[in-house]
Amino acid sequence: MTRRGKRRTRGTKRRKRRELVENLYKVGQFFAAVFIVLLLIAAIALAKGYEKDANQAAEYAYYSLVIGVVFLLAATILEEKNDQILG
User: Fold this and answer.
1) pLDDT tens-digit profile of 20-46?
2) d(C-alpha 87, C-alpha 82), whole Å
3) What does pTM read for this prediction?
4) Which DSSP string do the residues of 7-36 spell out, in sequence order?
């Protein structure tokens, strides 16, 4: 393989890593937004007296928050690792 081919491979890997980090951030942000919406729904349901439904919505909201935080944490770790590798 020529040197030129190796450069393209490195550039492609860097671009794919960047895209992966960006996608992880987007997915994490989506789940964080879902958390907020579900928590608002839980608050409204509780205000209207639907305690059982409010508790269930709040439970799903916290699951969504955990998933979002995991994705955002993974994106942050990969981003820092990429910065160290690329120098």
Assistant:
1) 999 999 999 999 999 999 999 999 999
2) 8
3) 0.78
4) HHHHHHHHHHHHHHHHHHHHHHHHHHHHHH
